[in-house]
Amino acid sequence: MAEPIVRFGILGCADIARKLSRAITLAPNATLYAVASRSNEKATAFASANGFPPGSKIYGSYEALLDDPDVDAVYVPLPTSLHVHWAVLVAQKKKHLLLEKPVALNAAEFDKIIEACESNGVQLMDGTMWVHHPRTAKMAEFLSDECRFGRLQKVHTMFTFASDPDFLKNDIRVKPDLDALGSLGDAGWYCIRSILFTANFELPKTVIALRDPQLNEAGVILSCGASLYWEDGKVATFHCSFLGNLTMDITAIGTKGSLHVHDFVIPYQEKEASFFSVSEAGFNDLVTGWTKEPSKHIVTTELPQEALMVREFSRLVCDIKFKSLKPEKKWPTMSRKTQLIVDAVKTSIDKGFEPVHINEHASVSVLSGLDYLKKNLLGKST
């Protein structure tokens, strides 16, 4: 029997929507059905340039697309400042929601989106593509292997890319009224998600932003970093930037092994990705070399990671539509945890690099320097 097909509508013609249009075309259980822009002309040009099939619906307003009863799911690549308004409307129209990251300006906004999706029984997933690559599952196997990796101790991750002057002046990611989180919400989102991935999505207790972030004249973050601390002693750091050469690394260190990835956000090659691992490495007798060298693990895939994301999202939609199953909650849970850490880093920057405590069931709270010293260094309750 043929696999059910999810009909996608795309809300807006952002540049990232070109990539998702191709992904929807490649996914075996999805199809491009409609696109909306603020003008028919722009929507028509986008559909023509991005392989929409004949007969696809073209809408000159977002509302018109949401009113189409044949749209099953909506991809929202709009600026972050518009997410809460349009994502809630998508859910209220009973459309399943694939939402670009960062999912919101803060966790309180995202909670409104989650509530709308839950009350309307629709699936919610953010657009973090790399977690859907089969390489990620293979890395998870190694990280969870107590014999080869042991217990996680440290994680360092970074995602930087050098933006040209036009980007730094005109891109929505440097505009305070569109994407006020800047590189923290864009590149930093991937770093934070990778840290949570290595920590099996256990939230840290405390986050401290690194000093001297770089901001533009409007106060939008162009480059920043942070340290994350868990009660059991795990520590993670990350750096994200619009100003450095293209780098996308994860280094995870355990008590028995370590893992290294050099292209975790976007693999060097579309259908092949790799990572390095080593267990119980040491020096030779003269300390002139290693007793073990890291092994390279190559993972292939027939579909690129963005198409795998669409395929998984569409599978969940079909399970709800045709099997009366409930929406899968793990995806919005991952999104919310990522957003909580984004919030904590931003709060720490705004509060002069004070430690910030994360409360999974609420949001974040600032610890004074003395409170942090008592709690973490002196072992006293606050």
From TrEMBL:
| Gfo/Idh/MocA-like oxidoreductase N-terminal domain: residues covered | 6-125
SUPFAM superfamilies from the UniProt entry? Glyceraldehyde-3-phosphate dehydrogenase-like, C-terminal domain, NAD(P)-binding Rossmann-fold domains
Checking InterPro entries in the record gives:
Gfo/Idh/MocA-like_OxRdtase_N, GFO_IDH_MocA-like_dom, NAD(P)-bd_dom_sf
Q: Give all residue intervals belonging to the GFO/IDH/MocA-like oxidoreductase domain.
A: 145-259
- Give GO MF terms, alphabetically: nucleotide binding
Q: Which family does it belong to?
A: Belongs to the Gfo/Idh/MocA family.
- Give the matching PANTHER family: OXIDOREDUCTASE FAMILY, NAD-BINDING ROSSMANN FOLD PROTEIN, PTHR46368
This protein is called what? Oxidoreductase
